[in-house]
């Protein structure tokens, strides 16, 4: 998921950046020290999560949030409790009171991921998938594939493996590249190293998903709640 930070305190920015990196499923697009500077990015990029401080120069985080017609999932980060009630009236995902732990951060992001997944799952049911076929570069060949043929994709060092029912293709594209390309077709990150075609899942058992091909794949701790919410478990 793509995210941005609006935080005027650089130490707090550094903590958020570290947590985002440690999370694995987040891609930090940009960070800003004031809300006004962040507006063009929000208008031009499809941002999933906004980490927003409240006490900011020029324009407060609350006033900035009120000005957005279609805000992304918003997680407020602040040292003050006074705005908790008002923030929830603005439908923020979570309210992180500084200093917060990585575990508390993961909980907030999981909520945002669940909301995003639910919205996308609803869209998938009514909108024709944007990507039905694609060419992947494997060695010297460009191979045409239907996205419905892909069971899962896994990251391995500097390359990724695209797994079909009985064979795989090795590519140099990143897992994030495939996530962005295949997202409209119902693919979902279940682990920092695994992207799965949700239509190929036959069951979820504990910390694993079982595919129609009988392959078992691990569920990352940070992704488990989003997966459960995706399927209404």
Descriptive account of the structure:
With 233 residues, this protein is of the alpha/beta class. The chain folds into two domains: 2-126, Rossmann fold, CATH 3.40.50; 133-230, LytTr DNA-binding domain (OB fold (Dihydrolipoamide Acetyltransferase, E2P), Beta Barrel). It is 33% helix and 31% strand. The strands form four sheets. Strands 2-1-3-4-5 form a five-stranded parallel beta sheet, with helices on both faces. Strands 10-9-8-12-11 form a five-stranded antiparallel beta sheet, covered by helices on one side. The protein has a three-stranded antiparallel beta sheet with strand order 13-14-15, with no helix packed on it. Helix 5 (102-126) runs parallel beside helix 7 (224-230). The radius of gyration is 19 Å and the shape is elongated. The two termini are 22 Å apart.
Task: Write a brief caption for the model.
With 233 residues, the chain is α/β, with parallel strands linked by helices. It has helices at residues 10-23, 35-44, 61-67, 84-89, 102-126, 175-182, 224-230, and strands at 2-6, 27-32, 49-53, 73-78, 94-97, 133-138, 141-146, 152-156, 159-163, 168-171, 187-191, 194-197, 201-205, 208-211, 216-218.
Number of helices: 7
Q: What is the fold named in CATH at topology level of the largest domain?
A: Rossmann fold
Instruction: State the fourth-level CATH superfamily of the largest domain.
Output: Response regulator
Helix fraction, binned, reads 25-40%
Low-confidence stretches: 121-131
At CATH level 2, the architecture of the largest domain is: 3-Layer(aba) Sandwich
| Biggest β-sheet description | 5 strands, parallel
Mean pLDDT: 85
Number of domains in the coordinates? Answer: 2
For the secondary structure, the number of strands is: 15
